[in-house]
Amino acid sequence: MKTKLPELVRQAKQGDAFAFARLYEEIYKDLYRFAYCTVKNTHTAEDVVSDSVLNAYENIHKLRKNESFRNWMFQIVANECKRQFRLQSKTVPYETGVVQDSPQPASDPTDRLAIRQAFDLLNEQERLIVGLSLYGGYSGKEISHFLHKKESTVRSIKSRALNKMKHILEVSNDD
Fold first, then answer.
1. Which residues fall within 8 angstroms of residue 90, CB to CB, at 6 or more apart?
2. Could you give the residue ranges of the DSSP H alpha helices within 60-139?
3. Is residue 13 exposed (0-12), middle (13-18) or buried (19+ Cβ within 10 Å)?
4. Sign of the C-alpha dihedral, residues 98, 132, 150, 57?
5. Were both Cys, which of 16, 89, 138, 144 would link to 154 (CB 3.0–4.6 Å)?
6. What is the pLDDT of residues 22-53, one digit of tens each?
7. How many Å apart are CA 17 and CA 71, to the nearest integer?
C-alpha cells in the first residue's frame, strides 16, 4: 500500500530520511522542469533543485501544514531561482538564445525551439509565473500565494506573458 504524502511529511519531520527521500522522488521531475524553464540551463537547474532539496530537508520542521509540502517545495525552488538570477547578474550577463537540451519533448523540434526562444524572451517574473502554471500545474491562486501577489495581478502577468509569446511565435512564423 502506498503511503500518503502527508504521512510521509509527518515522518520526514520526525527525522526519517527515507520518508524525505520518497517525498523527493514524488516531486523531483516537476521541480526540475520548473527550475529548468526558469533558469534555462540544465546544470543550473540541477544545482537549484539540489540546493532547494537540501534546504527543505534541513528546514522541513518549519513546514506548517503537511498537505502543503508540494507548494512549499515549489516556493523554495522559486526562491532559489531568484537567488541564481541575482548571482548571475553580478557575475556573467544572463545569456539568451538557443537552449540545447530541453526536458520537454515535442513532436516538431522546430516548434520546440520557437516556443523555447519565445519563453526565453519573457522577463524573470513572467517566466516564473508561466513556468509555475504550465510546468508546475499551479493555479493562479496558488501562484499568488507563492509570490505574495494578488491573484488578479498573477492572472494579468500570465495573460500578458502568454500573449507576448503568441505574438513572438506569430512573427517568427511569418518569416
1. none
2. 69-91, 109-120, 124-134
3. middle
4. negative
5. 144
6. 999 988 988 888 888 888 888 988 999 999 99
7. 20
- Which amino acid is located at 166 in the chain? K
CB 37 within 8 A of CB 115: no
**Integer Cα distance of 111 and 74 in angstroms:** 27
Q: In b/e form, how buried is each residue of 79-110, taking b as 16+ CB within 10 angstroms? A: ebbeebbeeeeeeeeeeeeebeebeeeeeeee
Residue 134 burial by Cβ neighbours in a 10 Å radius (0-12, 13-18, 19+): middle
Q: Look up cell 507548494; give the residue.
A: 71
pTM over 0.85: no
**In 3-state terms, what secondary structure has residue 6?**
helix
C-beta of residue 6 within 8 angstroms of C-beta of residue 67: yes
Give the pLDDT confidence of 46-77 residue by residue, as tens digits. Answer: 999 999 999 999 999 999 999 889 888 988 99
Cell of 144: 499568488
Number of other CB atoms surrounding residue 167 within 10 Å: 11
Closest CA to 145 of 47, 56, 136: 136
